[in-house]
Amino acid sequence: MLEIENLTHIYGGGGPSAHHAIDQLNLSVAEGELLCIVGPSGCGKSTLLRSIAGLITPTGGRIKVDGELVRQTPDNLAVVFQDYSRSLFPWMSVADNVALPLRRKNMDKKRRREAAAEALESVGLSGAGRKYPFQLSGGMQQRVAIARALAYRPTLMLMDEPFGSVDAQTREDLEDLVLKVRGHHKMTIVLITHDIDESVYVGDRVVVLSKAPAHVVADLQVDLPSPRDQINTREHPDFVHLRAEVGRLVRGQPVAH
Amino acid sequence: MNAPVLTRSPLARPRSSRWARRVTGALAFAALVEIAGRAGLAEFLPPASEILQRAAALLFDEGFRAHAGTSVLAWAIGLAVAALVAVPLGVLFGSVPVIDAATRAIVEFLRPIPSVALIPLVALLIGTGLQLRVTLVIYAAVWPILYNTMYGLRGVDPVARESLRSYGFGRLSVLWWVSLPSAAPFIMTGFRLATGVALILTVSTEIVAGRGEGIGVFIYFAGIAVPARMDDILAGVVWVGLFGVVVNALLVAAERRLFRWHHTRVGGGS
Amino acid sequence: MTRLGGALLRWPLLIVLVILWEVATRAAGSAFFPPPSTIVTRMHALWFSGPPGRLFLTDQAVADILPSLGRMAGGLAGGATAGILLGLALGLSSRAYDYLDGVLQFLRAIPPPALVTVFLVVFGFGMRMQLAFIMFSIIWPVLLNTADGARAVEPLYLETGRAFRLSRRERVLRIVLPAALPKVFAGLRLALSLSLIVTVFAELLPGTTNGIGFQLTVAYSMFNLPAMWAGIVLLGVLGYLLNEVFLVVERRVLGWHHARETAGA
């Protein structure tokens, strides 16, 4: 589904102010997988995501989505950004925000509207379509952003610290929403986070990145019983063990075997 | 927040290269006027070199210097009086809501009157000399200063005001230490807008009155001469435009220097 | 002081002021300062005593008010459209902006009346000259404000548009333009008050044959002070009404913006 080979990215083109964000990163994600990428802050996670989305051209290496080399944003790829207040358009109603990307899909107005309503319903926001983003809470705005991605029916959904700007309770609700949504729509999800608990709770697999320049430090399979549950899963011995391990890896400490 | 700068920000480019581009653009514009003038694309348009030569020559022309001097004088006196009137009034209206409400009606009904409409009436009342221009400049320049002063005072952070009052400061000290400094950037912006309006009124009044001294009079006579002295008109326009650009640039630079705290607070976005 | 309190105070106070003005001018008896009742009577006689079928407008009103409003509306529409289009184009290319910034600042700094003789020479007297002059006068604040707005669009808005593969046309139309609208309206507001000034200015010049400014010149040459005051009050009322209409439009178009600002987002 997604293959990354020797990805390297340097900002500022080799001058004295150059920033080496990613170094020789290799990664592959299987169809239908939910991969969480964790790493220390400022390690180049967002650069990685923007490279996959074709928003920036990496200085080296190759990225393939569905076997196609990424040159611009691939078809059937949707992004959910952390900062919903700046990625939802304040001048459009919620429904128009969700329906906007569908203009690329040769759908007429009626079908776009139906698809938007359906997507809003699946994130628990049916009836909010006529509102404007500023009339919704932060958590609800992020649900709208997720609905916008869902309506697009992507095969690959990228999420860039999607729950970084909401409170703890909302965060848990949104984590469960992602798990639920993923069960309904068959798609691959790459979720970037700096929250270790979150990566283990949501992911099928957790990839740990090093400090910048980022490369893969560890690639761990998460075998926790499903469906996951905020209380039970988090007290499961495997969860506790795994999150400690990821925590040590992120902090760059040796892992106890 | 965590993402590095991803889009090429125009601000990131070194200032020297932006200046080089501005100068290149200005030169290209001049070259365009030169070509259009020489090719006779527009019969009325003299080539840029001729306009600029004439502009340079006018600097040594005593008559022109007198015209320009009179205009600058009317402009400056009018602005100064307008500021002396409008800032105290704006402070009063902006800090005492009762007076604000009481005077709002007059302000709201006087402000929309386009200032040039007053030229004939004021000319009848006080004649067409320097005092005519000064009066109209005052009238036009008062509004932006008054409005921005009031706006700035209303926007003063009440927490800052209350924190000083809690230390036992009186109303006037709070005004002096909190309200005026935090309204100062707005007052300055109002003043900068007023300089532009004042220049428009100076020139308009001179052209409509059509006698005496002034850059507008100079331009007007160049226009009604037969054949019209296009080089004189455009050379005069070059000087007026440069004057406006320089005044504006100086005030913007002063705002940046004096109110650095203000720009960082609003993120430099305004 | 609440808004309602302010509004309640406003009208009675205005009436009191007008009465004071009336008393003072009657007492002074100066020919230069006719009492408001005289001014209003004159306004009525000049413009608003026509047949009901024509909304009470007299022939004089048709000759004075309509040409002024027509010039202003035409100049404003043309100048604003050109300003927004050029401003968008300029704002989308930071290179073009850098090159043209200096020239545009210069053009904006020229007080438009200084160029009126140029327009006279090029177009001769008449409607064409006046329209071109008004357009030229108001285009700069609109153009520069639009360009500023288009340059300052939140980068994440644009990235979102690209991530969903919107075409360039759609990104400009649905993201850049709406995001720049608050700035566009700031420019339009300046253009509106400027357009009234330059319209009257153009009408004050010799060679005009109609319009409120022309009526002022006629009154001036005949030493008819009540008619002059009537013209000034009429312009004030028109300016006030135009501004109110503008505010209504702005509130409709920028509702999302104002609501967001007051919500503190």
The general outline of chain C is globular
Helix content of chain C: over 70%
Structural class assignment of chain B = mainly alpha
User: Could you say what the CATH architecture of chain C is?
Assistant: Orthogonal Bundle
Rg of chain B to the nearest angstrom? 23 Å
**Stretches with pLDDT under 50, minimum 5 residues of chain C:** none
CATH class of chain C: Mainly Alpha
Q: What oligomerization state is this entry in?
A: heterotrimer
Net shape of chain B: globular
Average pLDDT number of chain C: 89
End-to-end separation of chain C in angstroms reads 26 Å
Relevant terms:
heterotrimer, A: 257 residues, alpha/beta, Rossmann fold, six-stranded mixed beta sheet, 9 helices, globular, C: 265 residues, mainly alpha, MetI-like fold, 0% strand, ABC_transporter-like_ATP-bd (chain A)
Task: Describe the protein in words.
- The complex is a heterotrimer of chains A (257), B (270) and C (265).
- Chain A is of the alpha/beta class and 257 residues long.
- Chain A has helices at 45-52, 84-87, 94-99, 109-122, 138-151, 168-184, 196-202, 232-235, 237-251, and strands at 2-11, 19-29, 34-38, 60-65, 68-69, 77-80, 156-160, 188-193, 205-209, 216-221.
- Chain A has two domains: 2-76 and 154-251, Rossmann fold (3-Layer(aba) Sandwich), CATH 3.40.50.300; 88-152, no CATH class.
- Chain A is 35% helix and 23% strand.
- In chain A, the strands form two sheets. In chain A, strands 6-7-8-3-9-10 form a six-stranded mixed beta sheet, with helices on both faces.
- In chain A, helix 4 packs across helix 5 and helix 7 packs across helix 9 (237-251).
- With 270 residues, chain B is mainly alpha-helical.
- Chain B has one domain: MetI-like (MetI-like fold, Orthogonal Bundle), CATH 1.10.3720.10.
- Chain B has helices at residues 15-39, 48-59, 62-95, 97-110, 119-126, 130-154, 158-165, 171-209, 215-224, 230-258, 260-265.
- In chain B, helix 3 (62-95) packs parallel to helix 6 and helix 7 crosses helix 8 (171-209).
- Chain C has 265 residues and is mostly helical.
- Chain C has a single domain (66-254), classed as MetI-like (MetI-like fold).
- Chain C has helices spanning 3-28, 36-47, 59-92, 94-109, 116-123, 127-151, 155-163, 168-204, 212-221, 225-253, 255-263.
- Chains in contact: A-B, A-C, B-C.
- At the B-C interface, helix 1, helix 4, helix 5, helix 8 and helix 9 of B face helix 1, helix 4, helix 5, helix 7 and helix 8 of C.
